[in-house]
From TrEMBL:
CDD domains: YkuD_like. This is L,D-TPase catalytic domain-containing protein. Pfam families: YkuD. PANTHER family: L,D-TRANSPEPTIDASE, L,D-TRANSPEPTIDASE YCIB-RELATED. GO terms for cellular component: extracellular region. Pathway: Cell wall biogenesis; peptidoglycan biosynthesis. InterPro entries: LD-transpeptidase, LD_TPept_cat_dom, Transpep_catalytic_dom. PROSITE patterns: LD_TPASE. Residues 439-576 form the L,D-TPase catalytic domain. GO terms for biological process: cell wall organization; peptidoglycan-protein cross-linking; regulation of cell shape. The keyword Ribosomal protein does not apply.
Length: 576
């Protein structure tokens, strides 16, 4: 039998692999089809997710409101970093465990709620800080205006700006409102301090006009320019305004000088005389003038060669550089000299008018508030910290004002007028600070009395206790910086210090000076008036009432309530 050869078919090696792919594909499709159900079963509480989104929106809105209110980005930056961190996070995979998702969104809500509270707290704290700064800047503007008024500067616009700032402060709500007030007030102070030098340039132009008139030259246009410059100076509210006016005056002076070269040598001599006068002033202040003497010699030599406008302009540039270079030393010397005079007068008067206290047998200077432990230390610290022209000018302004307060104290010390009647010294101080039309609290250290004026009329008077020899109250013009009721004073001094006191409930308190200086009630005292600022025996029997205050002004409870209820942040406080 013939058999045909039979060949078995070859089995494909890819067949098992193909079967596995089919099964894997079917399993994948089955899993995907089940995924919505699994996610629905394990994806977490939808309400928690919605709440987290709402809390995020609330925080985002609060943060934006804080920025809109003027809270600096530097303050908000830590919260913004946390915001970015939260937004970049994501919920865990919910396939088999929905609880982890719920915990994530619950924690997210908690974090956003915490950030919202923190943001609101920063807004409140920033508002308070900017409010206090605005009060300080406005008070600085007020004292600068009062001090410069006697110099005949055109300050009507800046006086109005101060009044506007006070009105704006009453209406201000947000940090940006108070920041704008501070900027405006600081610009105004800088403008006032810059005004004399700009007016000096204008005086030079006026001198040129006078010399041209003597030479029978036409000065009509130049006079109009002079009048316009003075008007612009009067309207200036920012240093940049005066800088622009100064440049105009320089150009006008240069143009005018070209028309009368014959009088240029005299102008050069006038500048030399002015420079030498300033150098002499520096010597009087005890400043080393060796470098300025060299400049003076150089100016004298250069003046001899001034024949043309070009010569004069070169000489004027050297003169201006010399004058500009000595301004810081002049103001520093003046500030240092005035403070030395102030301390000398305080010590001299105090040592010649010592008060002998019969309770402890010691002698005390009645003008303690003006000594080193009082405003004297503040002036010394201000001088030590001064670096710029504006800083030194502020020192000069402050020491001149404090010198006036000292003079009023000395006059009041020997004035027999009852404390319950208006005093001439009160009126003089209110006139100096342009406060006769305002509400003013006056504190007399000599009488240990408080008088309240409305529009220059006395409406209330009573005795107080202000300071003590070691911790005197601070003389000066102060704003009502902060007002508190039902508060607790905590001692800044440690236990064991002679000045330590237990936590003390205070019903009415008005902050008048940074560092914790208040007008407030002192329910633990019975006795007020002259002598209570020293050690004595208070009729209350309370030993803590046997001493003066820690720099505060103590009032009987009923009087403190009246003062608190009948004054406001716009009330000025005069202490002398």
């Amino acid at each position: 039998m013939n058999f045909r050869q039979y060949t078995m078919p070859e089995r494909s090696v890819t067949a098992p692999m193909h079967g596995k792919k089919v099964r894997f594909t079917l399993l994948l499709l089955l899993t995907i089809s089940m995924l919505p159900g699994l996610l629905t079963a394990c994806g977490g509480d939808a309400h928690l997710q919605q709440q987290a989104q709402q809390d995020q929106n609330t925080f985002d809105k609060t943060l934006q409101q804080a920025q809109d209110a003027g809270v600096p980005l530097s303050v908000l930056q830590p919260l913004m970093k946390q915001q970015q961190s939260l937004k970049s996070s994501s919920a865990p995979w919910p396939l088999f465990n929905g609880n982890s998702v719920d915990e994530y969104y619950s924690n997210l809500s908690t974090r956003y709620n915490s950030l919202t509270v923190q943001t609101q707290g920063l807004v409140d704290a920033t508002t308070d800080r900017f409010h206090e700064q605005a009060s300080t800047d406005l008070q600085r503007l007020q004292t600068t205006l009062a001090n410069k008024q006697k110099d005949g500067l055109p300050l009507d616009t800046l006086n109005k700006l101060y009044n506007t700032g006070m009105d704006q402060q009453k209406k201000a709500k947000y940090p940006k409102d108070y920041a704008a007030i501070s900027v405006q007030a600081k610009d105004a102070v800088s403008t006032i301090n810059m005004m004399p030098s700009t007016l000096e340039k204008l005086d030079t132009l006026k001198e040129i006009i006078s010399l041209m008139q003597e030479g029978h030259q036409d000065t009509g246009d130049l006079q109009k320019q002079y009048d316009a410059n003075y008007k612009d100076i009067s309207k200036a509210t920012k240093p940049g305004d005066l800088t622009a006016v100064g440049k105009n005056i320089d150009k006008q002076s240069e143009s005018a000088t070209a028309s009368f070269q014959k009088i240029i040598p005299q102008l050069a001599q006038d500048k030399i005389d002015a420079y030498d006068k300033q150098v002499k002033q520096l010597k009087d202040y005890g400043v080393d003038t060796s470098s300025y003497d060299k400049t003076s010699t150089s100016l004298h030599d250069q003046a001899q060669k001034v024949k043309t406008l070009k010569d004069f302009l070169a000489f004027e540039k050297a003169y201006n550089n010399g004058i500009s270079g000595m301004q810081l030393d002049l103001l520093k010397g003046k500030a240092t000299s005035e403070i030395k005079k102030f301390h000398a007068k305080v010590d001299s008067w105090g040592n010649s008018h010592l008060y002998h206290n019969p309770y402890d047998g010691k002698n005390y200077a009645p003008n303690m508030g003006y000594m080193t432990k009082g405003i004297g230390e503040d002036l010394d610290n201000e001088l030590a910290a001064a670096k710029t022209l504006t800083d030194y000018q502020a020192v000069v302004t402050d020491v001149e004002n404090e010198s006036l307060h000292l003079e009023m104290f000395i006059q009041d010390f020997s004035d027999g007028t009852p404390y319950s009647q208006p005093h001439a010294t009160d009126t003089q101080l209110m006139q100096h600070y342009k406060l006769l039309g305002s509400q003013v609290i006056v504190v007399s250290f000599a009488e240990q009395a408080m008088r309240v004026y409305n529009g220059g009329q006395l409406v209330r008077a009573f005795q107080i206790t202000a300071g003590r020899p070691e911790l005197p109250a601070v003389p000066g013009l102060w704003p009502e910086m902060w007002r508190k009721t039902k508060t607790v004073f905590k001692s800044p001094y440690p236990k064991g210090s002679p000045y330590y006191y237990d936590d003390t409930k205070i019903n009415y308190a008005i902050l008048y000076h940074s560092g914790g200086y208040f007008l407030h009630d002192s329910w633990w005292r019975n006795d007020y008036g002259p002598g209570t600022q020293y050690f004595h025996i208070d009729s209350s029997g309370n030993s803590s009432a046997n001493y003066g205050t820690h720099g505060c002004v103590n009032m009987p409870l009923d009087q403190a309530k009246w003062v608190y209820d009948n004054t406001s942040y716009s009330t000025s406080i005069l202490m002398y």
